[in-house]
UniProtKB/TrEMBL annotation:
Highest taxon in the source lineage: Eukaryota
Protein name: UBA domain-containing protein
UniProt biased composition (Basic and acidic residues): 181-212
Pfam families tied to this protein: PUB, UBA_7, zf-C2H2_OTU1_C
Chain positions covered by the region annotation Disordered: 85-106, 170-212, 256-289
PROSITE patterns membership: UBA (PS50030), ZINC_FINGER_C2H2_1 (PS00028)
Taxon lineage: Eukaryota, Viridiplantae, Streptophyta, Embryophyta, Tracheophyta
Database matches in SUPFAM superfamilies: PUG domain-like, UBA-like
Domain UBA: 111-152
Length: 416
């Protein structure tokens, strides 16, 4: 198959002729060219008719003008390439002079409608650009020239005067000049059209912003729903733990009552209860399971550690309910004050040598440990308990308050 193009062996560019290959070599210093059967791509824009020789060029045209429809005319424009080197320009002129057949035709600037040219000048367009636009748009109207300028504003030769052969230069048909009122009306129409286009763009942007606001709102609602769901699960888990604690306390009380009853009968010298009166004991498996549930386990979370401190405090002073209740209420006051006023230093600093504090909390086992779990630290040689502002953890303080409320209001808390 005959070659349809020349391909640069250095960069892969396809060229239509030897002249283009020579120009490419001068610009890039590439010298390795081979004949190729692949035709140079010819994509013609359906809107403005601009030819594009590569996909990259068509993408740039689309980005610049917004035109997306292209017609592939590669096969129509493809023709066998001639590998004969072009003759120098001077030789061609000498041959033409020697033969006497023809001379190089003179190139001149095409004539354009002066009235339309003046209108474009009033709009602020350069003289050379206005002439090229009117010539390319057929001298139809200033509106067509403006549209052509918008579509080709990035062309490298847009501000260069166009040149046409003298033979093709034809006088323009006389066109009726526009009155100042008509010129003003046209300018007003162009401004109105530009204003409408701007309004449409603003409406489109507003719709996009509204969609974004709706999306952000949905995300916030979803986040709030998930937070509420997690809080609901936490409360359910806390209530379940309280019920289990209450059930275990009841079971321990029942066992203690049974043991006390058996001890009293033994001291009185009475015989054990009749087998028929004794309640059936739980199966061995269940009893083993119950005993295992009461084995001492190291608390895993900070909340469980707080609960264990409060349980220890109550068990060590189970004969003095008033002192235990006073300690729980004092600890609850400390946690509540810090959570409500985290910036007040007076609520975050406790003197350990204070007599009231020692009598209510300090001397009781588990009281200071509970405050340390809330974030308090000993400072100045152990004279003060201090909670730094940056270490104030509101969720931890809220958990401490929940545990204290449960310990105060649950009559079975810490029993046995």
């Amino acid at each position: 198959m005959a070659g349809l193009s020349l391909q640069c062996g250095d960069c892969g560019t396809l060229l239509k002729s030897v002249e283009e290959a020579q120009e490419h070599a001068e610009l890039t210093k590439h010298a390795n060219f081979v004949e190729s059967t692949e035709a140079v791509l010819n994509l013609v824009c359906s809107n403005c008719g601009k030819p594009c020789r590569s996909k990259t060029e068509s993408d740039l045209h689309t980005k610049r003008t917004g035109h997306t429809e292209f017609v592939d005319k590669t096969s129509e424009a493809a023709k066998p390439i001639s590998l004969e080197a072009p003759k120098p320009k001077d030789d061609v002129e000498m041959e033409e002079v020697g033969d006497g057949s023809s001379q190089q035709e003179e190139m001149v600037v095409p004539e354009v409608n002066q009235q339309l040219l003046a209108e474009l000048a009033e709009m602020g367009f350069p003289h050379e650009r206005s002439i090229r636009a009117l010539h390319s748009s057929g001298n139809i109207s200033s509106e067509a020239a403006v549209n052509w300028i918008v579509e080709h504003e990035n062309d490298p030769d847009i501000d260069q005067l166009p040149l046409v052969p003298v033979s093709s230069k034809q006088p323009l048909a006389p066109k009726q000049s526009l009155t100042p009122e008509e010129i003003k009306q046209k300018q007003q129409e162009l401004k109105e059209r530009a204003r409408k286009k701007k309004e449409e763009e603003e409406k489109r942007m507003e719709r996009e912003r509204e969609k974004e606001r709706i999306r952000v709102g949905r995300e916030l609602l979803e986040a709030k729903r998930m937070e509420e769901e997690n809080e609901r699960k936490r409360i359910l888990a806390l209530r379940k733990a309280e019920k289990e604690e209450e059930q275990r306390a009841r079971e321990r009380i029942r066992q203690k009552l049974e043991e006390d009853k058996a001890e009293r009968r033994r001291k009185l010298g009475l015989s054990p209860e009749e087998p028929s009166a004794v309640k059936p004991s739980a199966p061995p498996v269940e009893e083993k399971k119950t005993l295992q549930s009461f084995l001492p386990v190291r608390p895993a979370t900070k909340t469980e550690q707080m609960r264990e401190c409060l349980r220890t405090l109550k068990q060590d002073h189970k004969d003095d309910d008033a002192k235990v209740k006073t300690a729980f209420n004092t600890l609850l006051t400390f946690a509540k004050n810090v959570a409500t006023n985290p910036n007040e230093e007076k609520f975050r600093k406790i003197r350990l040598t204070n007599a009231n504090f020692q009598d209510r909390v300090g001397k009781l086992k588990g009281g200071i440990e509970f405050l340390e779990l809330c974030g308090f630290e000993k400072i100045e040689g152990g004279e003060f308990l201090y909670l730094r502002r940056e270490k104030v953890d509101i969720p931890v303080l809220q958990s401490a308050g929940s545990e204290l409320n449960n310990a105060i209001n649950n009559p079975f808390f810490g029993v046995l």
